[in-house]
Fold each of these.
Amino acid sequence: MTRSTAFPTLLAAAALALCGTACNTAPAPAESAPPPPDVGAITAAITDMEEVYAKAAANKDVETIMAYYAEDIVSYRTGKEALQGKAALRAEMAERMEQDSLNVVPVFKVQDIFVGLDHVTEIGSWTDSDAQGNVLDHGTYMAVFRKTANGWECIREMSVSAKAKEAAATAS
């Protein structure tokens, strides 16, 4: 072997020695990606939750409503401090329902759903009417849900009334 061919030959032999049996094994199969979320089914589940919530609110059934929420819920509302935790929300909701002499009937309408792997963000509209169907207030809301073993639970919500904006526009 000449000097000019000795180095490439040694380099090839070293590469083969380093490779050993590892070069002969097939690559590990790629992990399959999880199936995409079923947006239609998730939207239906969230819509069902909103309908149960609305019926329970009309019946002043605080405990049924509380099933909607996670223990660590944070609820933001127009003109009020954020409520932190299910106990604080339960107390505020029970007091509000106790003071409700108009028998408010809420309606929630899911406008849009944004689906992640274990979270869903819902954007919707709401209308509160009295027992005769007269609209008392309306607005928009956003809710963030966390996936649990039993479905979805609301961990954050924000609700804004359109009434104040309409009153300001009328006053100008």
Amino acid sequence: MGNKSAFRAFICVAIIVGFFLPWFKDTDISVSGWAIVKNNSLAFDRTKTATILRYSFLLIPIFSLFVLFRSIGRQSSGLLIRLVPFLVMAVLTALFVFGSTRMTNGEELRTEIFQILSFGFYICAIGSFLLIFLAGD
């Protein structure tokens, strides 16, 4: 396995591990990407849109697995496949920020957003960004 393939595989593993680590933290609870997917307890979560949104989180580790397998097999992974985890992270983060801004005062959210996000989110976000540019073919 070449240096680029090994680096790409390392980033993919980091993204997959980060998906299961805490993304959001509060004083009592922390929520991972996996917990978001499997949580179906809230009443509004039973709508079709919320279900699609919830399961779209799975695109992050699934496409990271595709890139990981292609890297292990020394195959080229196209830009589109490497871009999907970052796009999903960006869209879901934007939805979280816009939804939270509507529910709270926007000024409060800007000061507290970095206190809410946890290390699993940062690992996935930074890893998916690095996967696009630094781990290219």
Amino acid sequence: MLLSETSATVVACQQAVLRFYYALDRNNYPLAMEQVGPDCIWERGGVLLQGREQIEASVRKKSPTQVARHVVNNFALLRQEATGATAVYCLVLHLYDDGSQPRLPVPGSTPFLMVDVTCELKLEDDRVWRIQQLDVTHTFSYAREVTTPLLAASARK
């Protein structure tokens, strides 16, 4: 069964978003940057980033002992045109960092934050959908000690 053009666009846009976070979580920065357009705009941590180089430099600053997992939920394409699309989704971020070399599985985690994301995507000249802009609205934010429940519990004793 062949996908309709609309369904194929939804899948391609969703895959670009999912590959972006998958790659970030695994420190695969080349794969992550393949998912964003050359002039992508993203306000991250209060800093406006523009372009692959600034975005990559920012995400590479994470702690080498941190384990992160982004969970994308409720993905929907709200607008689709020939070379542009608008997607929305809810993003939950789990973080864990006890300062030691990362190992899986980590000992439990409560989400660090939940955000609503509006994502503009563009069909590039190579016929690949890429993230053009990420607009993030914080829904729930948690204190850092929540991301390390075992350390937080031991500190209270």
Amino acid sequence: MRRAGTRGVLAAAAVMVVLMVGACSSGTDEIAGATTTLPPEEIGPPVVFVAVGGDETIGYGVADGLRDSWTQLVFREHLPRRSVHLNVASSGATVADALALQVPLALEVAPTLVTVWLAGADAAQATPVAAYERDLEQVVRQLQGDGSTRVVVAVGPPIVAGSGDTEPYDDAAERVAGRTGAGLVDLSAVDPAFGIDAHEVVASAVANALAAPR
């Protein structure tokens, strides 16, 4: 009799497990008599967002760059849930550095969206504008690949102290965007102090540029 009772308890437990699995697989959650429909799965291929750049792109001006940088804000607040994000930017990177080191890393993950913001370090090092323009065009064209990757080039104020006048480089970036068909986002009105408010402004502007029709 004791063994039969145990088998009865185990059988009842098994039935409860089956019922719980069935409820989970039905796409609803029943708690205290209330039924909540789970959000539908997003359809379509994943969105792979990669950020290429220098100090402006690694969270300069905010205490927690992993949380509050404009790239993270774009990723968390402006892209679908199925998105992934890789930031390959590095402090002090010039456009030549990005071409040699960052672009190969970006291409490894087959990006669908890419931002490129490079000027401060080149201005600080007085890179010849013609060389900057040539290398930046190579960066953009390699990232665009067969044309399926959306690339947006950013131009803006000299964020990093000592970077000097970035205007000639921004003019070159605009020419590159025009020749390659890349998107262009003008951030020249952003506060050069580049605090959290500035990162939010940049995130919104970049997200709009990424979503704009080609």
